[in-house]
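User: I'll paste a sequence; please echo it back and then give the predicted structure.

Assistant: Echoing your sequence first, then the prediction.
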Amino acid sequence: MLLSARSIASLLLLGGVVIFGVAGSFILGHLGHNFNECMDLINSIYFTVVTLSTVGYGDIVPITPIAKIFVVILIVFGMGAFLTALTSISGDLASKRILDLTNKLEKIEEEMS
């Protein structure tokens, strides 16, 4: 199944939000004590995935106002990008299914006439 341009764009947007989250938490973690943990690359990836998946274990927490604002922005854009990707891909799947059923129906109609 091929994805539409809209679905590909929405997946790229989601990837961009993940990169923004990883890079932002990594940079903020190295600019000072913005988080309660050392934000190396692994912790930055972990924090971004846990935050965007809405699990939010609470083991890595933003402490400073700038870190909290960053996390709010990450959540808002992350949820928007995730829902956009989900609806685009779901629409592609539904369109393919409708097309397949339409083709089957046309084939049955041809055989009956």
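The two ends are 32 Å apart (CA to CA). DSSP finds three helices and no strands in the chain.
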